[in-house]
Write a structure and sequence with these properties.
alpha/beta, 5-stranded parallel beta sheet, Rossmann fold, 7% strand
């Protein structure tokens, strides 16, 4: 009987490993990781309580347990405020370094909006009016639901860029374009190519696919500029395939896949870390099996861009989220009528 919680936990670990092994490009990777973490903590508390009399003979273990529990409580209590401060500060940095425009205000808007919802909204919505109470309940659920989806998205994004080994016997490594200036590769795109080159060194039999067409303000297609950069870095020209027609991520993936002549290829996808997960979801929708590798950029830019990527994800999957919110709204309306 005492081993049942442990057996259940091990079964859940096995199921999660199977999920990550066969199809990690889903929000369930983040949701599953969080759920598994909670189950691990609950199981640990169960055994700590069960063996509490024995543990009293080991004061050091008891002290460590108390400290960990206290730390967990503090993290839970201060996490919302810490999140608001982090996004606010980094949002100011984005504006300072990247300029004042709508796409650079996302971190700041998120921080201010979360502060209003958590600390200001409850003060002004204390009302006995059923309509106002119901409306606030629906809005609160919608915000909480979207924040939960955002948290799952961020966690899934991280898990899909985490690899213990870069040596994966890959056949192709697709590097996604990110815009060039004239014929010059900017730092953001250079970091993607450098990451692709690093992965190529771990997978010497693979071919690099430099993917990107020619956009406004670009003298040549991105794919050609990326190939030149890689060649200047010492990569043999025979190891590079150029895709020069795409204008967005979906076309990057679709056009690049058509250049792969090997059947059932092992594919690695390289882009900036905040962009990896949405690119993987697009690849999944196109039927392209691949794993993602992320290049690093500045933290303030990553936070702002991650919110932009999440908005892009919502635009792809908005229907199911709207259905969940509508169903809850109907439930609240029925409940208010019954009362």
């Amino acid at each position: 009987m005492i081993f049942i919680p442990l057996i259940i936990l091990l079964i859940l670990y096995f199921m999660y490993c199977m999920l990550m092994r066969y199809e990690s490009r889903t929000l369930w990777s983040g949701v599953g990781f969080f759920g598994l973490s909670m189950m691990t903590i609950i199981t640990a508390f169960f055994y700590a309580f069960y063996y509490s009399e024995t543990l009293t003979h080991y004061p050091l273990i008891m002290d460590i347990g108390v400290l960990l529990a206290a730390a967990a409580v503090l993290v839970i209590l201060f996490f919302p405020l810490a999140t608001i401060i982090m996004f606010f500060v980094e949002g100011i940095k984005v504006i300072k370094h990247e300029g004042l425009k709508l796409t650079n205000l996302l971190s700041l808007i998120f921080a201010i909006g979360l502060f209003i919802f958590l600390f200001v909204g409850p003060i002004f919505v204390k009302s006995s009016n059923k309509i106002m109470t119901s409306l606030y309940a629906v809005i609160s659920f919608a915000v909480f639901y979207l924040l939960s989806v955002l948290a799952s998205y961020c966690l899934s994004a991280f898990l899909n860029t985490f690899h213990l080994f870069k040596k994966r016997k890959l056949d192709y490594i697709i590097v996604l374009g990110a815009g060039i200036k004239g014929e010059q590769v900017p730092p953001l795109l250079a970091s993607r190519i450098d990451q692709g080159i690093e992965i190529l060194k771990k997978n010497p039999k693979a071919l690099l696919i430099m993917s990107g067409g020619q956009g406004k303000g670009e003298d040549i297609p991105e794919g050609e500029a990326m190939a030149r950069y890689a060649i200047n870095k010492g990569i043999d020209e025979s190891k590079i395939i150029i895709e020069n027609k795409s204008t967005n991520t979906k076309e990057n993936l679709l056009f690049s896949s058509k250049l792969m002549i090997k059947e059932s290829p092992r594919v690695g996808l390289v882009t900036t870390s905040y962009h990896v997960f949405r690119a993987l979801i697009l690849a999944k929708d196109l039927g392209i099996r691949c794993i993602g590798f992320g290049s690093v950029t500045k933290w303030y830019f990553t936070l702002n861009a991650l919110i932009r990527e999440f908005i892009g994800y919502l635009s792809m999957t908005w229907k199911k989220h709207v259905i969940v919110i509508i169903l809850y709204s109907i439930f609240i309306v029925i409940l208010s009528i019954v009362r």
